[in-house]
Amino acid sequence: MSRFNAPAWRVVGSFVSWFAFAFFFGGLYQTAGVVIGLGGYCASGGPYVIETECPEAVVVFAPVGIFGMLAAAGISVVIARGFGLSLLAWAWPILFVGLGAQFILGAVTGVGVIGNILVGVMFIVMGVVPVWFIVSSKALVATLVGSVNVAGQRFAYDGTPRRVFGLTPAAPDEETVPTPVDGVISLGLWLVSAGLGAWLSVLAFTAVGSAG
């Protein structure tokens, strides 16, 4: 893994992992909204007559969403290696709270009110529990800034382990205290990469749906 120890690789790993996660989560989020709007189910292909045909965008984005997000997590572990806002810490809360919100929105629009509310609340609880763990374990700052700086130097956090939701790459023995600049770099990189991924996800979902 020494080939990925250069600062540029950490920046690329953090950017690409969050971009990919936002893109594929965005596709899955939009897919969930469409399927919920169709009554909670649809199908495509097969030898039988299908009552509710899935739109083309759902057919494309539903199967690749989870695998794409897993690939994003792999990029974060292998290349970012603890630098930047932790994808491993926040992927689960974003996924379940986001999908839970879609179910609640479906209930608000009058589609499967009771079922959608129950599933939505369950998903949101599943997403909030890890956030409570992060906050209660005093790891919040570590997950937002990362476990290492761009040079690979480990951050020293009071009361938190060195390895926080990510792998710590080989680094000098001495630790360093995270500065406001480290926080700006981490959060700024996340805003740009995740924002770009989410925006392109909306464009891609719309384009595939229009083409279908």
Question: Summary?
Answer:
By secondary structure, the chain is mostly helical. Helix content is 66%, strand content 0%.
Description:
This protein is an all-alpha fold. 66% of the residues lie in helices and 0% in strands. It has helices spanning 7-37, 56-80, 87-108, 113-136, 140-145, 180-211.
Which band does the percent of strand residues land in? under 5%
What is the alpha-carbon Rg in Å?
A: 19 Å
Helix content: 55-70%
Overall average pLDDT: 85
Name the shape in a single word.
globular
Break the fold down into its secondary structure elements and pairings.
Blueprint: H1 7-37, H2 56-80, H3 87-108, H4 113-136, H5 140-145, H6 180-211
Annotation keywords:
mainly alpha; globular; 212 residues
